[in-house]
Amino acid sequence: MGELLIRFWRLSVMSLSTTLLPLAGVALGSAGTLIGQYLSTRVEARRVRFEQFSAERAERKEALMEFLSAAQRVELCLDRLSMGEELEDSEKWESLHALWLAKKVPELVCTPAVAQAAHDYTLALHRLLRGQAPEEGAPSKRELRYAFIEAARRELGVDADPLRRDFPAEELGQSSP
User: Fold this and answer.
1) Contact (CB, 8 A) for 129 and 92
2) Residue 69 in contact with residue 101, Cβ under 8 Å?
3) How far apart are the first and last CA of the chain?
4) pLDDT value of residue 91
5) Predicted pLDDT of residue 177
6) How confident is the model at residue 14, as a pLDDT?
7) At what angle do helices 2-82 and 89-109 cross, to 10 degrees?
8) H or E, element range at 10
9) Measured distance CA(101)–CA(92) in Å, rounded
10) Vertex 144, ends 141 and 147: CA angle to 5°?
11) Has residue 50 got a pLDDT over 50?
12) Measured on CA atoms in the order 81, 84, 85, 90, is the torsion positive or negative?
């Protein structure tokens, strides 16, 4: 009877191993496939997010450059006026129209901080080109340009110190204290 039990046990173990080992292999293979698909999906999602971020950044950069180009045209007109040149009204209006149009693009694709800085700078340029004196206590054109540039730098992800806008004492011919 003991021999019979041993034989039966050996047959049971052999048939179990021939059944369980392939099932374990299938389970491990399926688990590996699922883990691989999960990791692949995560990598793909990260890639898509990065591409979307890059496209949005490029769109913002283009909007900022378009605005700066229009602002620079108005600044050039202001420089010419300050040197005593006469400008035709049509040139002033075209420059202002291009500036106000270019200002709307950051309002569409940038953060509210950048849009507001662009608006404030545009309004100051508009008033100056139209010959209107700045309001008392209002920031200067230069300060508004600086505020816009700093907001734009943050928008583009520049995590550095603000740009220095003053001249070092050595450049002015003064010694530093």
Assistant:
1) yes
2) no
3) 107
4) 95
5) 44
6) 65
7) 160
8) helix 2-82
9) 14
10) 155
11) yes
12) positive
Q: Please say whether the dihedral angle defined by the alpha carbons of residues 66, 69, 73 and 78, taken in this order, is positive or negative.
A: positive
Quickly list H helices, 83-111.
Answer: 89-109
For 67-85, what is each residue's pLDDT tens digit?
999 999 999 999 999 999 9
- For residue 16, the one-letter residue type is L
- Is the CB of residue 64 less than 8 Å from the CB of residue 155? yes
Instruction: Name the amino acid, one letter, at 61.
Output: K
Cα(61)–Cα(109) distance, rounded to whole angstroms? 10
Hey, how many other C-beta atoms are within 10 angstroms of the C-beta on 67? 26
Q: Which residues contact 169 (CB under 8 A, 6 or more apart)?
A: 175, 176, 177
Q: How many CB atoms lie within 10 A of CB 10?
A: 10
